[in-house]
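Task: encode each sequence below as structure tokens.

Item 1
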Amino acid sequence: MSKRVLIIDDETNIRRMMRLTLESDGYEVEDADDGAKGLSMFGNGERFDAVLLDQKMPGMDGISTLRQIRERAPSARVIMITAFGTIELAVDAMKLGATDFVRKPTTPDALRGALAAALSKTPVAPATRRAPTPSAAPLELPPVEVWTVNGFFIRARPAPEGAAANEHLFEIRHAARGPQGEVVVVVDLKEVTRLAKVIERELPVGGAFWRQRAERAVVNHFFREAAPPAGNRLVLNHISDDAIVLARSWTKD
């Protein structure tokens, strides 16, 4: 039986592109041009296997629509699509149960990958779903075992024996194309020293704070680029003012 997908997006051309892409792949597709209409079509969610949901829409925005979808069907697979995305928005969406987060304008390949990633996940029954753990600070990422961005699964892995303390390893897999290898995020030691001077204490380069900054860097990269970095390597050489605020209150290391 064909999978049924609901598209909720206020842009006619985007809806048409997504519909044509998915119908050519054998999906059954329905669409709505705003959140209210989308919720009406969604009903209790039994008719649809996945929802493609735009974030920025007039009236009810994507986060508000997502919240109501989750109230009606806690195990619904919802892919957020936005041209205005940030890691903070991705965190908010994932806390509400979004399955994937895709940057707009998306390509047919990225759309297929994101949908394949969503459909590969077994819906969690409401009685067994764990409530998200609140973040200790605005820029602290919630505990997510596997991030899904633009159809890529991103999972932190233990550093191999002999790796430098400032190297953080992530396993990458694409829903449609399979394993993509590993990405190493290298923390610039000059930034470690600079941060220590600013906050007047040292946070271990192999500890939780820098692991989370590395995770943030790799998730951001795959959100922006929808592809592995050159040489499967990223260098973390800038800590924002907001991250410095977080570091001042950091207690996990």
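Item 2
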Amino acid sequence: MEVALIQCTTDMLKTIWCAARTCYSPLSPQELWQSQPTREEMLRIARHIFTSRHLSVAEHCGMTFAVAGVSRTLLAQYSRHRIGVSLSVQSQRYVSARRTAEGCLCAHVIPPGVSANPEAKDIYLKAMEQAQALYEELADAGVPKEDARFVLPGGAATNFVTTLNLRSLMDIYHKRVVTPGAQWEIKELLVRMAKAVVEREPWLVEYFPGLEEL
């Protein structure tokens, strides 16, 4: 799995402060943005907002991630989080899943519960091999890629670009990382996304519970 933050709101803290202060200030948002509030004041407002759960102002902070080498199973899970989330996914209709020039299988993700068990891993790889062979047989028979893809498994790897706002990221993080029961792959994705944002905006770390230990 590869996750890269490729675009982000330049100054999330001041953006949140400006949006929050606009709701209660006689000043225009332009005047507020041009002012020079102290970092302590901006952090105070942000902390009040996040602890009181008035999170609409966090929607003004956006970020775009490039994600590669994840499974179609993860994609199905992630795409359920539709509010405030945009997706552009590598298409199996147009991108061929044939073997590479080196004769290797099309990319796929092996779950840790499988890779830790040699017998299970052997079974899994045989299933991948069979799916690959069937896909190529269908393609050789003249079946379009958009129909041949139906034999590809949930473990087939894919790539996507996703854009979401800070409120959405915090919500998905809570559901897929903080709340027990999420599958390992989507949990890892959300941890990496959160860490990439916190690296840019270190003050946010306290609003992603447990992130420093992960």
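Check on item 2: The beta strands are 2-8, 62-71, 85-89, 157-165. The first strand starts at residue 2 and ends at 8.
End of task.
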